[in-house]
Every structure is written in C-alpha cells, then in structure tokens.
Amino acid sequence: MDKIKKYAMYFVLVIAFFIFSDFLIYVGLNSSYRDIQRQDSVEEVSIYQAEATKVNGRIRGLIQNPNGEDLNGKYVEVDLYSKRNVFLGRKYIQINDLQQGDTQSFELLFKIEDVASYNVSIVNEKQEGEEIDLLPNDLTTSQIVVATVLTVLIFW
After folding, report:
1. Which one of 12, 37, 40, 136 is most buried, counting C-beta atoms within 10 A?
2. What do you get for the CA distance between the two ends of the chain, in Å?
3. Strands of the sheet with 87-94, listed across from one edge
4. Alpha-carbon gap, residue 25 to 137, rounded angstroms
5. Do 79 and 117 meet the contact criterion of CB atoms below 8 Å apart?
6. Which residues contact 122 (CB under 8 A, 6 or more apart)?
7. What confidence score (pLDDT) does residue 48 get?
8. What is the pTM of this model?
9. Does domain 35-123 have CATH number 2.60.40.10?
10. What DSSP element (H or E) covers 62?
C-alpha cells in the first residue's frame, strides 16, 4: 500500500509541475507583447487587439457593414510599419458575403521584426506581387522526417 501512495504522490507532483510550468509559459509569452498603434480611421474595420513582440505579432478585429455598402469581393489591406515609418509588410483579408449590419471577424498573425504601427484600408483588389508572406510556410512531412533523421544521426 505504501508503494501505491508513493506512486500516486509522484503522479500528483508531475501533474502539478506540468500545470505550473504551462501557466508560467503562458504568462511569459503574453507579457512580452506590447500594443502597436493604428494610423488610419476606417470606420468599417474595428480592431480590438493589435500587439507585437520583437519578432512577431497579431491583429484581431471585426469588419462591419453599417451603411449597407457593397463590400463583397473587396479586401481589407493591412500595412505594417516600423518606428521610423518604414514599410515592413502587407497582408490582404478578403471580405466575404457581408450584408448591411453583418460583421466578419479576422485574425492576422505575422512574423516581422520591430512592428510599431499599422494602417488599415479597404481596397477593391489585391496588388499582385506586393503581398509579403508574413508567416513562414509549414514544414512538409518529408522535411520533418529528414530533420528528425539528421538529428538522430547527430546525437547518435
């Protein structure tokens, strides 16, 4: 019976350590974000979260259609700038079937260094070749297998 109590205590300690470390990681990552400033006054787009760290960031908001304008097929263009107003990147968000009074939520995640401000505008079409891939592409299965094999060979 003592062994069962000992193993149960170890199990509880491992779970407590996992919960505590997960909490510390969450607090550590989210405390490194700072607000970034908006440079425009587009009424149809409201932003409720715009934050960036030294290397990445996120912008979350809502696209609204209060006036009943035809926004279908248009895009929300988000330009990212540094502290000295240097253009760093651009991303387009397509506006889907948005009737009068409807809202559409969006989330923009980016991996660009030193973003201090952003500019939002509504445009009719994307400018080809101007959109910068703000997040790196995911690794394919073959790339993951090759990286794993190389790592195992290095440490073996």
Report:
1. 40
2. 41
3. 37-38, 117-123, 75-81, 87-94
4. 25
5. no
6. 42, 44, 45, 71, 74, 75, 76, 77, 95
7. 92
8. 0.69
9. yes
10. strand 57-64
